[in-house]
């Protein structure tokens, strides 16, 4: 039975505060700028100091994402699905933590629980598409000649994402999962006012089987970070889901056009609705192969 002295000692204990860092290449570095910004709750009270990512951090994240493309895109669709399902299992294990983090921002207990459950379910849903999307968006094409003409989807490469400000977790999952399930790697800018669920998600990813560099998470101002990603020549796609400033969105589109990026423009989205294939297909390339149906062998046998 605890003594009075031990109870007093426990009540005086100082909590271990989390240092919120970036997530780049499977590691948790501090921002090279040394800057951070204050994250507050719905009442304006202090929640955390989040890292303020810089241009250099964005470039490091793109480098990590590019380095992971070959391994991730080269994995079988079945293997990618297994890994993403493993992430969902670990999200389920941290369910209460995610709920608590969302509630700190003024989300009701019911709404927070619904958002976390929806985020986990959506991750599972995309995991299931890993070995099915090729059959839906690819296939055999009819041609006028003795040829097989087959189209198959391939990943675009490195995709930069701006996650929506709200819902902080469901919105983040809804832009990250569809991009990586098809073999792309991503650099994502988390919700600026609500970044804590993104860093907790990073901890889940870091302890899953997901290779380092497949998902890289930056926290900070999209207005500062996104232009460097939009103009980066080694970024192949750009999703502006979380950009709310119309002028900034236009500037980013212009910057992306210089390097011919695939682009998803900002639009009003109901993140709780069935997403369909709308966020998977923009970052897929189509490879078409022609093959003769028969040829004459050395002994005159048709194959």
Describe the protein.
This protein has 303 residues and is an alpha/beta fold. It has one domain: Aldehyde Dehydrogenase, Chain A, domain 1. Helix content is 42%, strand content 17%. The chain has a five-stranded parallel sheet, with helices on both faces. It has a three-stranded antiparallel sheet with strand order 3-4-10. Helix 7 links the parallel strand 5 and strand 6. Helix 4 crosses helix 5 and helix 5 packs parallel to helix 7. The longest helix is centred in the middle third of the chain and has 21 residues.
Along the chain, the helix and strand elements come as HEEHHHHHEEEHEHEHEHEE
The CA-CA distance between the termini, in Å, is 83 Å
User: Would you tell me the overall average pLDDT?
Assistant: 92
Number of domains: 1
Proportion of helical residues: 40-55%
User: What strand order characterises the main sheet?
Assistant: 7-6-5-8-9
Tally of DSSP helical segments: 10
Main pleated sheet:
5 strands, parallel
E-strand count:
10
* CATH first level: Alpha Beta
Strand content: 15-25%
Which topology does CATH recognise?
Aldehyde Dehydrogenase, Chain A, domain 1
Architecture per CATH nomenclature, i.e. the level-2 architecture? 3-Layer(aba) Sandwich
Structural class, please? alpha/beta
In the predicted model, the low-confidence regions spanning at least 5 consecutive residues are 297-303
Q: Radius of gyration, Cα only, in angstroms?
A: 22 Å
CATH superfamily: Aldehyde Dehydrogenase, Chain A, domain 1
Can you tell me the overall shape? Answer: globular
